[in-house]
């Protein structure tokens, strides 16, 4: 049948049908989400509204925080050790406000998240143990993203989702009783190529309060610039979605995350 298709657009449409890729509600059959963040505040900044809506609908959301957040200060009286402790407390409070009950800390040093076999295996182990239906992570191809932890967290998440299903990858985990696990839904946040939007207009103020729970990050003078920035981002996605405030995500069929020259088109 496919050999009769002569046009790329027709082929793409048929291929997506074949792959059962449906963007109308990627979370429809999702009961558990792993949200991967480079630092203790990225899940709420990128997806706070979406997370609140998911937990309200009974979905379990677990955060995986890659680093300890210990560099996030301009205060030279605050040691990196003290700051890491403060940031854990703030992240726990912020997560609770969104209905998130559990945070897994990998505690890599802030600004030094390594793109290594070790870090990849850490994430594979978590995916195999937690068995999430969906994994969400920062888009590592966000143009001009300057923070290496953000780029690397995105790449590590992609690698881990690709490899967690392979029994010969990190096979000592499998021998120790962890089953290979296939993640059904993978999505990017902090993306410039969103293809799915969540209307967060009714939870925007709660999202902002949950971001401000990170008091060490958002002092009054910092917040003066950040509140307008965060509202502008939400309006940017909202305009694309036809609502006031939205969050934008990018979902792709697993197959398109490898050797696909037209992956950007969906
Ligand atoms: Zn960050």
Helix content bin = 40-55%
Point out poorly predicted stretches.
Answer: none
Total separate domains: 1
Strand content: 15-25%
How far the N terminus sits from the C terminus, by CA atoms, comes to 23 Å
Largest sheet: 7 strands, mixed
CATH superfamily: LmbE-like
Overall structural class, as computed from helix and strand content, comes to alpha/beta
* Mean pLDDT over all positions: 96
Organism: Thermococcus celericrescens
Protein name: Diacetylchitobiose deacetylase
InterPro entries: GlcNAc_PI_deacetylase-related, LmbE-like_dom_sf
Pfam family, one: PIG-L
At a glance:
The protein is an alpha/beta fold and about 270 residues long. Helix content is about 40%, strand content about 15%.
Written overview of the protein:
With 266 residues, the chain is α/β, with parallel strands linked by helices. The model has no long low-confidence stretch (mean pLDDT 96). It is globular, with a radius of gyration of 19 Å. It has a 7-stranded mixed β-sheet, sandwiched between helices. It has one domain (30-191, 203-254): LmbE-like (Rossmann fold, 3-Layer(aba) Sandwich). The protein has helices at residues 8-18, 42-56, 80-97, 117-130, 148-163, 171-175, 204-212, 220-241; strands spanning 32-37, 60-67, 102-108, 134-138, 185-189, 196-199, 246-251. Zinc ion is lined by residues 38-39, 42, 150. It comes from Thermococcus celericrescens. One of its GO terms (molecular function) is hydrolase activity, acting on carbon-nitrogen (but not peptide) bonds, in linear amides. This is Diacetylchitobiose deacetylase. InterPro entries: GlcNAc_PI_deacetylase-related, LmbE-like_dom_sf.
